[in-house]
Amino acid sequence: MNKEKQKIVPALRFAGFNDEWQVKLLSKCADVIDPHPSHRAPAAVSNGIPFIGIGDISENGELDTKNVRLVSNEIYKEHTNRYQLKNGDFAYGRVASVGKVVDLSNNVEKSYTYSPTMAIIQPKSINPKYLKFFCESNFFVTQVNSKTSGSTRKSIGMQNLRVLKIAVPKKEDEQQKIANCLTSLDNLITAETEKLENLKDHKKGLLQQLFPANGETKPQYRFPEFEGDGDWEETTLGDVADYENGKAHEKEISETGKYIVVNSKFISTEGKVVKLSNSPNLKANVGDILMVLSDIPNGKAIAKCFYVEKEDIYTVNQRICKITPTGIDNKFLFYIQNRNKYFLAFDDGVKQTNLRKDTVLLFPFLKPKDQKEQEKIASCLSSADNLIEAQTTRIKTLKSHKKGLMQQLFPNVNA
User: Fold this and answer.
1) Confidence at residue 45, expressed as pLDDT on a 0 to 100 scale
2) CA-only gyration radius of the chain, Å
3) Which residue has the higher pLDDT, 17 or 65?
4) DSSP letters of 33-92?
5) Is-contact 304 343, C-beta < 8 A?
6) Strand partners, 245
């Protein structure tokens, strides 16, 4: 008995469309271009044309050109002689960060050249936005994963990329409706992301106003009930808190462990990278402040702090210290200690930074004499953090919704 041929249609469809979709190769839908013929990154120059690599694409698929390196005008001419960017073009990550997609339409009038870690995709005979979204879909990603090579540095060859399958509605109107739907959702995610950045900027402003600037003994802004309380008083961490070094857990890691092992990765990734253990070699208690003591030169983790808000959950790893406040509001100390410039000054940018116990305990800072003022400042900043967390969750929910919607709007061409 012949197996019935699968009908290529999506699970969710706009009204008025019922035709079966077509399956085409990517190369039939677009020109797939290697932007650098030599397959080698050109030498950087001090003045020239920005050279965009896969690392210049953010997690949101946006192009960040602030810190890109420059290449000579000669190299640029060599590249642009091979193609000219058009509205609807996008770049596709094919080395290391395989699958990253970035819209290049905003760069049509600008002079950029691109790394061979990306392919430039120029849609033809297909809605450009539709093709871009399909290249982000799970169905396309599954095909890409089947053709990638390399154990640590994944990559997909240009020829393998060109023969990947694209499911295409026969009617352009249906392509446009799908593109419009997902574009609207992307615009909402972008707007919510901007709100998140504004909230983070607001918190930075609060930190600047609620704590004294260098050389000052009072903050720029003070809550009305404390305006007459005079200067803040000098103290050190050792005067207001107890210190304890974390313990090694490396030999006691368990996938089913009861306790979260707080290490530098856990703190630096905001809890995204988690290791577990059944051995609480150094338990952390509610109100403790856990701080990273060791990091690479110019690292982002040194002196980053984690505030413990749950009991019997965390155990502290080595190269992390546990600070237990005794004569100061716990949350206030967390906000003033986290990535404080005092600690960052020990990073010389050359060798690994290792903060010692005596260095940590000598951390000097100012605090309000009235603990109620400390609590009020901490409460204000905690409220800002709660807003940031809620906004972050909203963005995650929208992204999850988009992912699920794409699953329904595009048919599975891999079955």
Assistant:
1) 82
2) 27
3) 17
4) E-S-TTSSPPPPBSSSEEEE-GGGB-TTS-B--TT-EEE-HHHHHHHHTT----TT-EEE
5) no
6) 321
Burial call 163-197: b when 16+ CB within 10 Å, e when fewer: ebbbbbbeeeebbebbbebbeebbeebeebbeebe
In order of 203, 210, 335, 365, the CA distances from 215 in angstroms are 22, 15, 19, 11
> Residue 46: what pLDDT?
82
Q: How far apart are CA 70 and CA 45, in angstroms?
A: 5
40 confidence band (pLDDT: 50, 70, 90): low
Signed CA dihedral, 374, 377, 380, 386: sign only? negative
Question: Do β-strands 69-71 and 276-277 pair in parallel, antiparallel, or remain unpaired?
Answer: unpaired
Q: Which residues contact 92 (CB under 8 A, 6 or more apart)?
A: 99, 100, 101, 118, 119, 120, 121, 135, 161
What's the rounded Cα separation, in Å, for the pair 317 and 249?
Answer: 6
Instruction: List, in sequence order, every residue forming a beta bridge with 52; answer none if it has no partner.
Output: 114
Rounded Cα distance between 312 and 159, Å, is: 54
pTM of the complete model: 0.85
Share of the chain above pLDDT 90, in %: 74
Cα 276 off chain centre by: 23
Q: What order of strands is seen across the sheet that includes strand 69-71?
A: 69-71, 49-52, 113-114
Q: Are the beta carbons of 408 and 12 closer than 8 angstroms?
A: yes
The answer to whether residue 39 scores a pLDDT higher than 50 is no
Biggest CA–CA distance in the chain, Å, is: 91
Residues paired with 241 in a beta bridge: 325
Nearest CA-CA partner of 265 in 320, 341, 335: 320
Answer positive or negative: Cα dihedral of 76, 79, 82, 84: negative
Name the amino acid, one letter, at 63.
L
Q: Can you tell me whether residue 320 is helix, strand or coil?
A: strand
Query: Would you state the structure tokens that stand for residue 260, as one six-digit string?
Result: 């979260």
Q: How far, in Å, CA of 319 to CA of 248, rounded?
A: 9
Whole-number Cα distances in Å, 83 to 54, 101, 128: 19, 19, 17
In sign, the C-alpha dihedral spanning 55, 197, 132, 11 is: positive
